[in-house]
Amino acid sequence: MIRRSVIKKNINTSQIHHVIGHNGSVFFKIFFKYLIILLSSLLIFLLLKNYIQWEYLPWIFVWIGLILFTKFCIDFFNIYLDALVMTDAGVVLYLWEWLLEYRTETFDRDRIETISHNQDGIWDKMFLRWDITIRLEHGIEFPFENITKPKKQASKILQLKDRFLLNKDYQEDTVSDNKKFDVLVEALWEVVKDYIDKWERNKNDDFYEDYDYGWEEEY
Known about the structure:
This protein has 219 residues and is an alpha+beta fold.
């Protein structure tokens, strides 16, 4: 998938878990806009051709068509590549702005407090599209417009958040257990070390006592 590949390359993350893009209806406006301009240009060309006998006239409109097509592709990808991305590092708002320019905003999943959605106008209801808003702590909001199935997308985000928190708690518990184990090992080592030192001292005392006793009898 082109969008996932481009996003993965630009945000430099090890794994992308989920990508939320725009509803397909947002591309209709762009398509019809450039279709009308292209048909108007063709109509103008047909009218001028009957009155202007100029060999370069067709080439002018060919270049106009190529420029329109290039602009259509740029505008299409500007919308197509916009996405909310769930990654290992957190949630990334990825916005493609112009050609090779893009902007990202990242926030941790455990900062998410609520996710809401709403429709704005008859066109949203007709095309079954919603605007979603992710509210973070301290009242910070991240809106993302024109998506499909907002309840399903919100549920997916919250599931990934819960999974992240469970993994985080598990890692913290593991670190805590490891620290406790290290303390226990260190304490046991101190006990064993004291026992070995005491045993060596007793052994040396017994040796010197035996040595002195043998010397007195010989004398």
